[in-house]
């Protein structure tokens, strides 16, 4: 949602924490393997993490151009475009923060590659160590080449940068980690 782009402040209330624990217990009784998908988890994972049983994180990275296309059909103006970029940025920062802080095994997949080929699906299968049933529908993937809603923006960005959006995200994260490391190394401790 474009309206929820800030992580919650402070921990969950005890009442909410108890509801989460009960939800996890109920899910574990129904199936050995279970999970949930909600983009807001990008913003709330730090609050969920200690309440969940041992788990894995599967993060899906989506190119900002694809996200723009998703919202484009609902009326377009500068304000909406700004809200899309703001939300996309906050959600992806949340993914990076979860990956950095989590001790859980983590897999980051590119949505466009997942919908257009087998390599990401193979990585997912290997990560969960389960056979997967492929229910992807190419006709549902709006950003695929040739879809009437797709635009050449992604191709132009790739031609200009020489990298796809997933590579850019990984490079920015590596750069951010290096900067954090150098900052920590230069801090002086009180004597």
Task: Walk me through the topology.
Layout: H1 14-30, H2 41-48, E1 57-61, H3 64-72, H4 78-101, E2 106-110, H5 111-116, H6 119-128, H7 153-161, H8 165-186
Parallel strand pairs: 1-2
Helix pairs in contact: 2-4, 3-4
Please describe the structure with a list of short key phrases separated by commas or semicolons.
191 residues; mainly alpha; 8 helices; 55% helix
Structure description:
By secondary structure, the protein is mainly α. It has eight helices and two strands; from the N terminus they run ααβααβαααα. A two-stranded parallel ribbon has the order 1-2. Helix 2 (41-48) packs parallel to helix 4 (78-101) and helix 3 (64-72) crosses helix 4 (78-101). The longest helix is centred in the middle third of the chain and has 24 residues, at 78-101. The termini are far apart. The model is unreliable at 147-161 and 186-191 (pLDDT under 50).
- What is the SS-derived class? mainly alpha
The value of Rg in angstroms is: 19 Å
Strand content: 5-15%
**SS summary, helix count:** 8
Oligomer designation: single chain
Span between termini: 48 Å
What integer is the average pLDDT? 78
- What gross morphology would you assign? globular
Q: Compute the number of strand runs.
A: 2
Which blocks of ≥5 consecutive residues have pLDDT under 50?
A: 147-161, 186-191
The biggest sheet amounts to: 2 strands, parallel
- The neighbouring-strand order within the major sheet is 1-2
Helix proportion range? 40-55%
The succession of helices and strands, N to C, reads HHEHHEHHHH
